[in-house]
Amino acid sequence: MAAESRGLGTGHFFDRQGQPLATVVQEGIVKYFPGRATASE
């Protein structure tokens, strides 16, 4: 999910029997710099 320069990702970990072990969530901020050179340029 992403909106207003923010992103949110979730993940789930399960054991070999399919039982849930953990849920993880990470939030990030996306910044866009138009006109800046990239490393490949």
TrEMBL record:
What the entry lists under Gene3D superfamilies is as follows: Hotdog Thioesterase
Q: Where is the Acyl-CoA thioesterase 2 C-terminal domain?
A: 2-28
Q: Report which superkingdom the organism of origin falls in.
A: Bacteria
Protein known as: Acyl-CoA thioesterase
Q: Which organism is it from?
A: Mycolicibacterium vaccae ATCC 25954
